[in-house]
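does this look right to u?? glycine version
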Amino acid sequence: MNLRLWNPERARRSRSGMPAALLLALPLTAGFAGAESAAIRARQGMVVSQSAIASEVGAQVLRDGGNAVDAAVATAFAMAVTHPTAGNIGGGGFLVWRPASGEPLAYDFREKAPAAAHPEMWLDENGEYSFQIHHLSHKAVGVPGTVAGLRLAWEEQGTMPWERLVRPAVELARDGFPISHGLAGSLARVLERMAPYPASVAQFSKDGTPYGPGEVLRQPDLAGSLERILENGTAGFYEGETAELLAAEMAANDGLITLEDLKNYRAVVREPIRGEYRGYEILSMPPPSSGGTAMVQMLNILEGYDIARNGFGSAANMHLMAEAMRRAYADRALHLGDPDFNPGIPIDRLTSKAYAEDLRATIDPERASVSSPSSFEWNTEGSETTHFSVVDKDRNAVSLTYTLEFGYGSGIVVPGAGFLLNNEMGDFNGAPGLTNERGLIGTDPNLAEPNKRMLSSMSPTIVARDGELFMVTGTPGGRTIINTVMQTIMNVVDHGMNAQEAVDAGRMHHQWLPDQIRYEKQMFSPDTLSILEAYGHRLSETEAQGAAEVIVVLRDEGVLEGGVDRRRPDGGAAVHDEDPSGN
Ligand code: GLY
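got this back:
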């Protein structure tokens, strides 16, 4: 086996003299190409998220003696205030927990379909599939899972009082925080979509006039909802005033979620997907996420090639990665969905080395396969999920990805309750049999049914080596998530990049349908792209793919390295303690 281990010497050489501080926020809005690739370092603990303010909330929990789950709970609630594009209490997600000793677990707080859901609920009056109903109506809202999931993880793994973890979010919502340049732009852009919802316009603008950078965003109704969660835990959200406000909004607007749906929601604990790549243990999210299964399948295929020797960004690697992606995404469509409704998902086969060998035998090293059917169009899909990574002083780790689906979800703020509702039902297949050339999938495992969870691509992932924590990674990006997370791992394991370099490096994506490699603009050479075309690949460019937030453990130095994704504004790493030897 070709084992290329992480090389701390190389990482050291690539560092520059960035000053260390307790709060190492990087609110960079500039392009990431050619940006500083020094990784942020800490000795004891670190939180890396898409909101520097929320990272600091989590790091303070670590400094006060909390563990990684405590810090994750506080960070997640803070992001529901400071990162309204995707941070949430009205959405859902996944948390992968790897304790320094003991068994890793996966917390599933994916939204569920309401009891009145059915596979044809997004057909219009003419029986035609309607994107608008599926993605941008009250029928697009799933029963939220975030509060139940954070509470369950805290009940099982947390060490600090619940109130201590929710209070910073209450204060941020009540007292406000300064709006960054990036958030101001994002709020201005979403205003038109929120126009039909007065509570949304009231919360995120000044009576319809966009906020400017530096102005303070106060969200008193959200503070009230968070206060009820602080006082009453899950009952403070799924019952009582908040639940009644949500159910009333649904009843008044043809939505399906009832008080009963809310009361019945439960987060669940699942076994993580496990794989092995070049001697590194991969732990990731099982169904209802497709992430862990597809990633392990792809890494098993790619393990058979000398990726390190081919070199980062080579046509040889990009071709092999695209072929692995094509095969895994076809299996994803065929097999994956909510395991509680699809008991026969062949996870063991899909993630086996033997199956990977069979698939590898179908790959021509210099000729693209053809997905069937094929096309050049892309299905519209949200990319505004968010991810954060946490490591504490004992090397317990949390990898957490959660989402509202589109940026700001449905765009609907629950009047009086101040939180945004997801539009996650859009992650169910749109209608039976609707597999088409634009990447819509209509296969059975992921059709809507009462109380079913919709298939996800979210891939919170933890990597270990020799039984010890090595890396925590994840990203937003819809179906691109799985491929982005895989590439951050390959960048470290195969290409010896440090955490920041692994995040900065150019990314590519193939998802079976449409039959096309999408690559980040200006990150790959024209020569490479010409070779890929000569192999028969169709190519398209994208501005940026994902926003990975990564922590790598340099075991020999006893140091954590953070990589913050500068493709999107406002991200930051906050550290428990600075590393006196670094930076
Ligand atoms: N809404 C993004 C995902 O779950 O994959």
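The mean pLDDT is 91. idk if thats expected tbh
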